[in-house]
Amino acid sequence: MKGYFVTGTDTGVGKTLASACLVAALRVTDDVCYWKPVQTGIEEDDDTRMVKALAHSPDEEIYFEGIRLERPLSPHLSARLAGVRISIEEILATASRAPKDRLMIVEGAGGVLVPLNEREMMIDLIRDLNLQAIVVARSGLGTINHSLLTLEALRLRGIDVAGVLMNGEPNEENRKAVESYGKVRVIAEIPRFERLSPDIVVRWAERNIRDI
Ligand SMILES: Nc1ncnc2c1ncn2[C@@H]1O[C@H](COP(=O)(O)OP(=O)(O)OP(=O)(O)O)[C@@H](O)[C@H]1O
Ligand SMILES: [Mg+2]
Hints:
Elements: E1 2-8, H1 15-26, E2 32-35, E3 38-39, H2 47-54, E4 62-63, E5 67-68, H3 75-82, H4 88-96, E6 103-107, H5 122-129, E7 132-138, H6 143-156, E8 161-167, H7 172-182, E9 186-190, H8 198-208
Helix pairs in contact: 1-2, 1-8, 4-5, 6-7
The chain binds adenosine-5'-triphosphate and magnesium ion (MG).
Adenosine-5'-triphosphate binds near residues 14, 17 and 110.
């Protein structure tokens, strides 16, 4: 599989919005495809549906397969409560059936050290999929620490980081700090959209996400 793994400094930091932006920006030059391998809380939170809507994606741009769990909890716990066990082996098997000719935008669940089962974590999946990571981080106070911790964990496991996407009211000092202490490029700063309409999101992404 080729493409990027969209991870984040936390849950709710904007990985799904960032993924929709990446789909919209990268489709200008490549055939892209979004994939959410593990989704918990599927009834209230369906990131696949959200990306499809926000990026205006036709079915070919979405890989619909994956583990879908009801309870809105960490994957290891949501799985346990459903009486199943998630394994990276199973996710890799699903990955092997994904479209091969497309640039995949794979969205994690939560952050990098989220457990999938009693032993494996999201970060192990990123490494095993052999994808470059894109880290989504909040723009505001607290982001320097969370971003640097996430970058350190990724690099410790030999995972290449393509860049950081900062989300929320742009904060120049925080962007500069993440770039210099984290030795990483901030690809773009996603503003807070008053209304998350597909047209606005797609237009913003085409203009602002370049040269990843
Ligand atoms: N820049 C933004 N402008 C407006 N709304 C935003 C923005 N970023 C995030 N949101 C909203 O905040 C919520 C959380 O964002 P999002 O779902 O993208 O986070 P996530 O990191 O994908 O979370 P999860 O860990 O559940 O996958 C969503 O309702 C989203 O629409
Ligand atoms: Mg999400």
